[in-house]
Specification:
Protein name: Branched-chain amino acid aminotransferase
Keywords: Aminotransferase, Pyridoxal phosphate, Transferase
GO molecular function: transaminase activity
CATH topology of the largest domain: D-amino Acid Aminotransferase, Chain A, domain 2
Radius of gyration: 19 Å
Number of strands: 15
Order of helices and strands: EEHEEHHEEHEHEEEEHEHEEEH
CATH superfamily of the largest domain: D-amino Acid Aminotransferase, subunit A, domain 2
Family: Belongs to the class-IV pyridoxal-phosphate-dependent aminotransferase family.
Strand content: 25-35%
Cofactor: pyridoxal 5'-phosphate
Number of domains: 2
Length: about 290
């Protein structure tokens, strides 16, 4: 695993989590994932603000400031001698058995950094196949819009997608509207205009999603955050997924039917190039 940051200290040992840690027992905690390029963490401030928002939603007090977490993340990255890395911060509520949280504040904080996984090049050239899965996000649950440690709906969606020989699961909310993929936001392109599920559609307010919206507007395309029926995905000219780790990945089929021409579309490519230019500007920033 390399060197990790656990409760205020860097250690080469594996973290020892208590058998009564509430994150382990109940999924009682939150997490955030980030990516670094050339030693610089992309949109680190925004990711940490979202981490604290997730914690606030579940009434969890993180015993660190955003400033201290920035330092801790950078220390962990440097200790592992990684410049291009996957970074995950996990915060649990700490020890305690039973549904009533402990009265005294506490918790466990773990930062892990690893090399960015080598995703298949064909994902970015040929795109991913997707299926609309059976499991749905609860439109009325606040947990649908945060990164909590209870990630079972996403895991079950991925399991179903694999069982159906697809690379990605497309999740609807309980109102049968398009929500997201298993760990990505989703965009559609129709008639030169871009559409993405609104924040009311049980989605995570993705950092990369927001960045792509800004890029699209600068490129002169209109983008609409709205409610989207699943039938609109099959009728789209193009579709793509966004996440901090995988960046922008074309989605070229759904339920075994091609989306558009069944390959990465020209607008998707243009947005991908612009995103990579933004990343390069971060690396070269002094």
């Amino acid at each position: 695993m390399g060197i990790i940051y656990f409760n205020g200290n860097l250690t080469e040992e594996k973290a020892v989590i208590s058998p009564v840690d509430r994150g382990f027992l109940y999924g009682d905690g939150v997490f955030e994932t980030m990516r670094s390029y050339g030693g610089r963490i992309f949109h680190q401030e925004e990711h940490l603000v979202r981490l604290f928002h997730s914690a606030e939603v579940i009434s969890l007090k993180i015993p660190y400031t955003i400033s201290r977490l920035k330092e801790a993340t950078s220390e962990t990255l440097l200790a592992n001698r990684l410049s291009n890395a996957y970074i995950r911060i996990t915060v649990s509520r700490g020890d305690g058995i039973g549904l009533i949280p402990p009265s005294s504040p506490g918790g466990n904080l773990l930062i892990v950094v690893q090399k960015v996984p080598l995703f298949p090049k064909r994902w970015y050239t040929d795109g991913l196949s997707g299926v609309v899965v059976k499991i749905k996000k609860d439109s009325r649950s606040p947990l649908s819009s945060i990164k909590s440690l209870n990630y079972l709906p996403n895991i079950l969606a991925k399991i179903e997608a694999q069982a159906r020989n697809a690379e990605e699961g497309i999740i609807l909310n309980s109102d049968c509207l398009l929500s997201s993929a298993t760990a990505s936001n989703i965009f559609l392109v129709s008639g030169g205009k871009l559409f993405t599920p609104s924040l009311r559609s049980s989605i995570l307010a993705g950092i990369t999603r927001r960045t792509v919206i800004e890029i699209v507007q600068k490129l002169g395309h209109e983008v609409c955050e709205t409610e989207i029926r699943k039938e609109e995905l099959a009728r789209a000219d193009e579709a793509f997924l966004t996440s901090s780790v995988r960046e922008i990945v074309p989605l070229t089929s759904v339920d075994e039917a091609p989306i558009g021409g069944g390959k990465a579309g020209e607008i998707t490519k243009k947005i991908t190039y612009a995103y990579r230019d933004l990343v390069r500007s971060l690396i070269n920033k002094t």
